[in-house]
Every structure is written in structure tokens, then in C-alpha cells.
Design brief:
Helix 2 crosses helix 4, helix 4 crosses helix 6 and helix 9 runs parallel beside helix 10. The relative contact order is 0.13. The chain starts with a helix and ends in a 16-residue tail after the last strand. The chain is built from 13 helices and twelve strands. Strand 6, helix 10 and strand 7 form a beta-alpha-beta unit. The chain has a six-stranded parallel β-sheet, sandwiched between helices. The protein has a four-stranded parallel β-sheet with strand order 7-6-8-9. The protein has a two-stranded antiparallel sheet with strand order 10-12. Helix content is 44%, strand content 15%. The chain is elongated, with a radius of gyration of 23 Å. It folds into three domains: 52 residues, 434 Repressor (Amino-terminal Domain); 123 residues, Rossmann fold, CATH 3.40.50; 127 residues, Response regulator (Rossmann fold, 3-Layer(aba) Sandwich), CATH 3.40.50. It is α/β, with parallel strands linked by helices and 347 residues long. It comes from Sinomonas puerhi. Keywords: DNA-binding, Transcription, Transcription regulation. One of its GO terms (molecular function) is transcription cis-regulatory region binding. This is LacI family DNA-binding transcriptional regulator.
């Protein structure tokens, strides 16, 4: 009976980072970094550690302390549209990182609506230990107030009052413009996203300034909801500008535009080149495959979690990183090509 009792006690003992380290064959310091500061550990090692931590049902000591201090062990992740494939990788990144750290993720769809986002934040103040806001539609004043009331991190929405993860799409927009210029395009249209989108204004500014430096004509149409269904209206508006190339706010709009161009007999890329943004799943399956802007979206989610958990740790709160910038690049596919001799489709 004693042996049996001892076996039960051993099997029920809470696992530690030492247990994880022994099974993974790494130092305890490596396990600690992988779970609290993942960008400092190579991806293969980090994933092995996370898998072992999940198998052992590891609960970090920081969370164990939190149980006695009124913490819930829940982190809320708010996204404007859970059906948008761009957010799939954000959610996957936050989920994996939170799970490894012993937290539960609560996912909220804010429906591209400021009032829904504000209401969710209010209700989550007692439910969640912290908040991650992806592409927040709040104003600066509203974000400042939200950050004052609860630990939070934003993704793709900079604010002076909360740590921020930025996906550097403006730089890639310049890459897209340079790519189009190399193909002989001189007139480019930007199809803008929602007015409440902070990112759409940054992207247009980058395109406008880069076009001016290169002697190109840049026009803007929109705003449009970031959905495939917006593509038809966006395509019609883009044709009226006389441009020979389009850069869309996101891949969903761009895919909808491809469908509309096909209906109107506008050949892509022979008559019109098109560039999307986000490199969502399926962008390379389009007809033609979509040239688009790619970025480490899942890593953005992981980084946001690390920045938030650092806020929740009294030992590291004073040294929380305030800004992390994710690099981007242009993924060139068949939807962009040489500019036509003239824009015969305009009008």
C-alpha cells in the first residue's frame, strides 16, 4: 500500500520546469526562456518544450501564485472578424503561447464594430487577467482609457499607452509599388479598408509618398469592408480610375476583385495587375495566383502574449518591451505583370 501511495503521490506531483528540461534534454534556463520569452529560443527547441509542457500539464509558478491573488488564468484575445483568415494565424500563435504558459485563451469577435469592442472590454475587466487587441477599431482616447484599466497589448494598432506588435505592411506596400514600377506601371490605385482601420491609413500614406518620389500617379478608392463580397464594387471603382495596377487592403478584397474582373472581361495581369495583403491560405490557389504581402503572423501572436505576460509578472513589469515590429515581404505570383500599352478598360 505504501508503494502504491507513493506512486500516486509522485504521479500527482505538479510538474516543474526541471521535469520539462530533463525530458527535453535542455537546461532549465532554456525552458524558462521558451515559456516566457520565446523569441530568444530557436523555433524547433521552443516547439519541443511547448509540446512537453502540454503533455505534463505544466502550470507555471507565476500562475500558481496568481491563483491566490485573484487572477483567473484567462487572457482574452479580441479580433475584428473571426472568419477572416488573417486572424487564424494570430489566434493560433496566441493560443499556443498561452497554453504553454498555463493560461486559457478567451476569443472574442468584435464584429468590426467599436461599440462591440468597448462593451467586450468592459465585461472582461473582471474575467480576464489581460487583453490582446488585434487590429483594434478604438480611437486613441479609448485605447488610452482601456490600457489604464487593464493590462493589454495591441497588434497592428499603435498607442503610446500599451505595448504594441506591428506588422510592417507599409514597408511592403513600398515594395509592391516598386515591383509594379519595374513592370512599367505608372498609375496605381489603392483599395482602402474600413475607415476605422488604423492600418489602412498607414498603408495609403506609404503608397502615396512612394508614388510621389517615383513620379507615379496614385489614387485611392474606398473605404471597403475587408471581405470578398466588397471586391465587385472595389473592382468597378478601380477601373474608373484608369489605373493599370491595384493594391488592395487585404487578400479577401483582392480575391473578390479577381472574380469581378473575370466577369467584366478584364484580364489579369494582361489588362490589370493586382496585389493583395496578408498572404492568407488560398491566396496562391487563386486564378491567377495572387501577388501579396507576407509576414510572420503567428509569431506576432506569440510575441503579443510574451509582452502581455511580462506585464503580469511583477519582476519584469518595469522592463516590458513597448514595441515589436514584424518584418514583411512581397510574395510575387502571377497576378502582376507588364503594364498594358494603355488603359483601354478605363471608364
Amino acid at each position: 500500500m505504501t508503494e502504491s501511495s507513493g506512486a500516486i503521490e509522485a504521479s500527482e506531483r505538479m510538474p516543474t520546469i526541471r521535469d520539462i528540461a530533463e525530458r527535453a534534454g535542455v537546461a532549465t534556463s532554456t525552458v524558462s526562456r521558451a515559456l516566457s520569452n520565446p523569441q530568444r529560443v530557436n523555433a524547433r527547441t521552443r516547439e519541443r518544450i511547448e509540446k512537453i509542457a502540454a503533455e505534463l500539464h505544466y502550470v507555471p509558478s507565476s500562475q500558481a501564485r496568481g491563483l491566490s491573488s485573484g487572477r483567473t488564468g484567462i487572457i482574452a484575445v479580441l479580433v475584428p472578424d473571426v472568419t477572416n483568415p488573417f486572424y487564424f494565424d494570430i489566434i493560433r500563435g496566441t493560443q499556443n503561447q498561452l497554453k504553454a504558459a498555463g493560461y486559457t485563451q478567451l476569443l472574442v469577435d468584435t464584429e468590426e464594430a467599436t461599440d462591440v469592442e468597448l462593451d467586450a472590454l468592459r465585461k472582461l475587466r473582471r474575467t480576464a487577467d489581460g487583453i490582446i487587441l488585434a487590429a483594434s477599431r478604438l480611437t486613441d482616447v479609448q485605447l488610452t482609457e482601456a490600457a489604464r484599466l487593464q493590462p493589454l497589448v495591441t497588434i497592428n494598432r499603435a498607442t503610446a499607452d500599451a505595448p504594441t506588435v506591428l506588422i510592417d505592411t507599409p514597408s511592403a506596400m513600398v515594395q509592391a509599388l516598386e515591383h509594379l514600377a519595374s513592370l512599367g506601371h505608372t498609375r496605381v490605385t489603392y483599395v482602402g479598408g474600413p475607415t476605422s482601420s488604423w492600418s489602412t491609413h498607414r498603408r495609403w500614406k506609404a503608397i502615396e509618398e512612394a508614388a510621389a518620389r517615383r513620379g507615379m500617379t496614385a489614387t485611392r478608392v474606398g473605404p471597403y469592408s475587408p471581405k470578398t463580397s466588397s471586391g465587385a464594387a472595389a473592382a468597378d471603382a478601380a477601373l474608373r480610375t484608369g489605373a493599370t495596377a491595384v493594391i488592395a487592403f487585404n487578400d479577401l478584397i483582392a480575391i473578390g476583385m479577381l472574380q469581378r474582373f473575370r466577369e467584366r472581361g478584364v484580364r489579369v495581369p494582361e489588362d490589370m495587375s493586382i496585389v493583395g495583403c496578408d498572404n492568407i491560405f488560398g491566396a496562391d490557389f487563386c486564378n491567377p495566383p495572387l501577388t501579396t504581402i507576407a509576414s510572420p503572423i503567428e509569431q506576432a501572436g506569440r510575441t503579443a502574449v510574451s509582452m502581455l505576460l511580462a506585464q503580469l509578472d511583477p519582476l519584469h513589469a518595469a522592463t516590458v518591451r513597448r514595441l515589436a515590429v514584424m518584418p514583411t515581404h512581397l510574395e510575387v505570383r502571377a497576378s502582376t505583370g507588364q503594364a498594358p500599352a494603355r488603359a483601354e478598360h478605363a471608364g
